[in-house]
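Translate sequence into structure tokens.
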Amino acid sequence: MTLPSQYQKLTATQYSKNFRQAVQLQTVSLDMPTGEDILIKNKYAGVNAADVMMGAGQYLLPTPLPCDMGAEAVGEIVAIGDAVTGLAVGDTVLTNAIGCGYREYYTTNYRRAVQIPAATPEIMSLSIGGLTASIALHVTGEMKAGETVLVTAAAGGTGQFAVQLAKLAGCTVIGTCSSDEKADLLRSWGCDRPVNYKTENLRDVLKKEFPKGVDVVFESVGGELFDICVDHLARFGRLITLGFITEYKEQPDVVTGVRIYYKLLGKMASIRGFNLNLFWSKPQILSEHMMKLIGLLNEGKLHPSIDPTEFHGVASAIDAVEYLQSGKNSGKVIVRY
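Result follows.
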């Protein structure tokens, strides 16, 4: 394979919650890997809500300027250093790191790449979305068979896995979404009670149909939806907060109300934060959950949904991030190279 002398990547050069203003498309030289490094030609990159926070300098991990964008990708190894073992040119790998995604080529230490059977959007969607859902529900949320699980943004790239994994675990699943089409998609994954929040009031649905409350909440929207979920936790209920996309583009909401312990203490309920980045120091847990996810995928028990809107090339990642922020997507948003 003849490699180019240059390639394109997307880099944040100033902090802004307007992703388009934060980033620049750059053309840089392509250097060959040495030592333990491998050079990967990316095929697909995943789009995540946190991209906006990375570009704003407000992510959970530092993003000092200039900062390359995109945090997950799959591709093919096209060159290796002389100290690389266990991987070869032609192997397909998955990478998770700030800066690995929105670029045509990526160089990294071979130990930071995970070999995969094929570089497909479906396998890539497991890396952040699948792992987040699996670890958050089973480890952080301590989900058990027979419980009622509420998933917000249930038709999104992460919510889709939470719905399916909760059903596979023997739970009753409620999922929120923004259209009847997405509600139909949730039903196809086994969701017991899709709630289109544009035509139904979630608070009323929970009060009438689930009067004892919900045992586990998988929550990534924030704002008023977070408040509703807290109010409807069951005794010993656990709310897992993974993000708050409603506040990503604006300043944090100023909340004037009773403190949260008034709502939790009597029910012995809890709010549990989840940050996948903290599990990179626990490779055994990551490996266990990734192997389980790939096994479910191969068995036909897990059905990743890839949003049909196509984005091609590094520059299109800007449009893809804005599309995700608009809430129009169903399933994982992908940038293709």
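Note: The mean pLDDT is 95.
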